[in-house]
Amino acid sequence: MARERVLVIDDSADIRSFLQEMVLGPRGYIVTTATDGQSGFEAALAQKPDLILLDVNMPRMTGLEVLEALREHNFSAPVILMTFYGSENIAVQAFRLGVRDYVRKPFEVEEVLAAIDRALTESRLRQERERLMRELAATNQQLQRRITELGTLYAIGQAVAAVLDLEKLLNRVVEAAVYLTRADDGGLFLVDRESGELYLTAAQGFGKTQAQGMRLRVEDSLIGQVIKSGTPLRSSAETGGIDLKVKTGYLVHSILYVPLRIKNQVIGALGVANRVRKYSFTQEDQFRLLALADYAAIAIENARLYEATQEIVAAEILKQTVVTLSHYINNPLTALAMSAQTLAMAVKEGRVQDEAGVIARAVLFTEMKVEEISAVLAILQDLASPKSTTYLGTIKMIDIEQQVKKRLEQIRKKYGA
Asked: Of the residues 44, 187, 330, 408, which has the maximum number of CB atoms within 10 A of its CB?
């Protein structure tokens, strides 16, 4: 259906009725009529129709006079002149005044429709061109906006990925989430590897002080739905999807949570909320937050690996320190033990007198203390050994005090002390 506006100017009621009710109206055209040239001219200026069907002979203003008046007012819509046989000279004048086509009375329906179609072709093409230009401009604007968004996301991703301090990284991720979605509040929850609970690691805006140490059960929270399903959650009070009251005790208008995923495993969730503004998050906001979550997950994994590497380095330094100190302590201990043994040999061979046994007791005491010190050094070396230390995650220390007591008791029992 056309839905284009056509003005019929003719003093014949039968022709006006025929064109409106039998020809144009059933084919979707919006038809208005005028009964003479003057009223038709005024209607054309007021209604600005897409096409005029104009009779030649009319009271008050002829068809040619209407054309001249429209021309003076820069009227651009196409005009089809309705003439009669033997009036070709009038048609020539009409073409000079801008008429696009003419039909002779009495006319056939198909003839009128063909003339209308020809006359409107140019305007239809112009309107289609204008529509396509508007769509192209809108598409270009949307594309430019998306390019800008991607550029911003890339810059934020680079900034996030450059941080190796885990606490600083998590705070920066939340700040970026609030900025990208224009949210009031933001928070990042991670899954506790031991308990399986969610704990808040960074927050901005909402109850940051109150939320310190917040822990949630996966089964009892909206965030837990994101963890279990691995899919985003976006809802608002407007849609009737939520009546949100966060554990810190405040109501929010809308929320958006997305999963943090590493190697197909969900390690947490990044979320934003609007508590003050009556703004519902959009699909575009979800896209931005998902992209940020991908950057964040990689950065969190890198930061954890960095921290684990630092633990390995620290353990290796400890090991090397113990080994080095043990070397420099064992050498003099060995010399001291050999001196005691030499003195004991001299007493035994009679080269040194020890009637009261003082020297023998001193030698025995020295040997015992040398062996005790050696035992403590051996325990320290065991402490730095990979066999008794876990380097990924927390370092599992051996029970030093128990080990030392056990070895010292064995040595003292050996020497009868």
From this structure: 187
